[in-house]
Amino acid sequence: MEENKSFKDKLSLGWRARKSAVSVSLIIIVYSVFNLGHATLAALSAVFAIRENMTDTYKYAKYRIFGNTIGVLIATTLIFLRRNFPILNNDIYTSVSGGLGVLLVLNFCTLFGIKQSIINSTATFLVVYLGTPEDTWLVYSISRILDTVFGTGVAIAVNRVLPNRKQDS
């Protein structure tokens, strides 16, 4: 089947790819016009959420939002402890709590029955825990959740407006 396709057919893009591209472009435009900073996590959220149909898009948008929220909450809790208890403000705590945070993310995703969120939740945890500016850690963390909500919202809107593959025939 796949091996019988011509080179040109293998390069053609389906509606899901087109919708992802439109979503990313819209997100970058909005972030640029309103000076919202980096659009990376919002754009990634849109790409991860776009699916072949609206039911799956809603489902994966939910996984993305819930998973990112888990990652952010665990990261901000560990950052809060490090910032407010001077004895924890060291490399040993950061190393041990980084590993512990990953375990917590895995366990919470499993507990809530959203194993599909494990990878993005863990990635969000690491981005926030290891990449948060010390002076703006809380705003940065909240912004990561809002980025995800915005990105998945754009994905849902674009997926609703643009045609689905079944409508092509």
From TrEMBL:
It is a multi-pass membrane protein. Its main location: membrane. Keywords: Cell membrane, Membrane, Transmembrane, Transmembrane helix. It is found in: Cell membrane. InterPro entries: ArAE_1. The chain crosses the membrane at residues 21-51, 63-81, 93-114, 137-158. GO terms for cellular component: plasma membrane. This is FUSC family protein.
